[in-house]
Design a protein that fits this description.
Elements: E1 2-10, H1 15-32, E2 38-43, E3 54-60, H2 63-71, H3 73-85, E4 86-95
Antiparallel strand pairs: 1-3, 1-4, 2-3
Helix pairs in contact: 1-3
């Protein structure tokens, strides 16, 4: 099993609206991308300077499935939106034994 975690820090402008939109868009991918085995999206309530605003936790059966997801047309639409409203992101991918 492959675990894919991404954290995003959003721009201040329209932040709450954009967080909600990103969450809905990401969660909709479960119905659109067959190789996506699991997804959880959370909006952070911590306001510390080091905190990120939104996190994505997802699972895939294989690295190839993660690659299919990463290049899927529906995923790329979400990526485009998030890039337009986010300041930065961090990612980690690992194999779950």
């Amino acid at each position: 099993m492959i675990v894919h975690i991404v954290m995003f820090k959003f721009k201040v402008e329209d932040k709450e609206e954009n967080l909600q939109k990103a969450k809905v868009m990401l969660e909709s991918l479960l119905e659109k991308i067959e190789c996506l085995a699991f997804m959880e999206v959370g909006i952070n309530f911590d306001t510390a300077e080091r905190a990120f605003d939104l996190s994505l936790y997802s699972k895939f059966q294989t690295k190839e499935d993660l690659e299919l997801y990463a290049n899927h047309e529906e995923h790329l639409k979400v990526v485009s939106f998030i890039k337009s409203v986010a300041l930065e992101s961090k990612v980690v991918d690992y194999i779950l034994d």
